[in-house]
Amino acid sequence: MKFTPKTEAELAEIVAGLQAPVKLQGGGTRAIGHSIAQDVLDMSGISGVVDYEPGALTLVAKAGTPIAEIEALLAAEKQRLSFEPMDHRTLLGTQGAPTIGGAVAANVSGPRRISVGACRDFALGVRFVDGMGRALKNGGRVMKNVTGYDLVKLMAGSWGTLGAMSEVSLKVMPCPETEATLALHVADAAVAVEAMSAALGSPYEVTGAAQNGPVYLRIEGFEPSVAYRLDALETVLTRFGAIERLNAEASATLWQELRDVTAFAGHAFVTRISLRPTDMPTFLAAAQAEHRFETQLDWAGGLAWLASDKESLADFAQSYCAAHGGHATRVKGSFESCAFQPEAAGVARLSHGLRQRFDPKGLFNPALMVRG
């Protein structure tokens, strides 16, 4: 059965009357993990921009609002979602339209995270329905919270396991006048991480540091400033290898492809792993001793996308992360095992307590983030 509420009141009524668990779905584009629920709670009907104040850099939208609609509205005012949410459709081969509620629920954050923060850092407020059918709200349209729980941050990254979001308030930012990218040819991942760290440690305000073949370093801002910073950063990086430049149009296209990991669309298994940048080369060397895969680095080496033809790589990545303080997610695969990194015992107790607080009947995306 599919439930399709059009308002928050309808959503609360549906949840209050549920007799079985449901799978929460927005645009249906992030088919990651497996929920044991048979019924679907389709949130796409709760859609529309509620309020947008360009001068205050704030936007309020219902959770089912397509991101494309929001981005078009912001672009007309030369503003944007600075956390650069990934579009998973090409990588996962899914249809539909990514929604803002789905992006917040999964804390979807792109390459610019290293310079401006994650999706949750731009979330000002949230409205949602908990597992008992109560409509709750937290935060507002300014960066201030006085409640016991910071529910805005709690909901961001919960993947719909704590409640069904009906509305989000976000901070937006102005678009830069232009951008450009340096492409640096390096020998290996260790040198790539060293070069990206050097760029980010410089005063030249790098807003993207990734590697897929070459190392790519993005600079944004006013045109004279970008030109000056490109020259200065190139001088810093010449010791690492040959450098090329990409102009604004080529740079924008490149970073969209890196954001959406389109290079790995043809692979059966894709794993996303987050570690300290300095630990990533050691992990990659250990993984390459036992597995064959392709790698795309982001966040200056703090994030790696691994594409392979065998799911055993994801098992290796999750085991490694458990021992070294990282996090590995099975983004694409069979999902016979839990997609998300198994939680340490203490964290698991906290997570269980939160689920008992907000969804005591286990209605929302059951077993999605824990091993069955």
UniProtKB/TrEMBL annotation:
Flavoprotein is among the record's keywords? yes
Q: Which UniProt keywords apply?
A: FAD, Flavoprotein
Highest taxon in the source lineage: Bacteria
Molecular function GO labels? catalytic activity; FAD binding
Q: Among its keywords, does the record have Chloroplast?
A: no
Report domain FAD-binding PCMH-type positions.
1-175
What name does UniProt use for this protein?
Answer: Glycolate oxidase FAD binding subunit
Q: Which organism is it from?
A: Lentibacter algarum
Its ancestry begins with: Bacteria, Pseudomonadati, Pseudomonadota, Alphaproteobacteria, Rhodobacterales
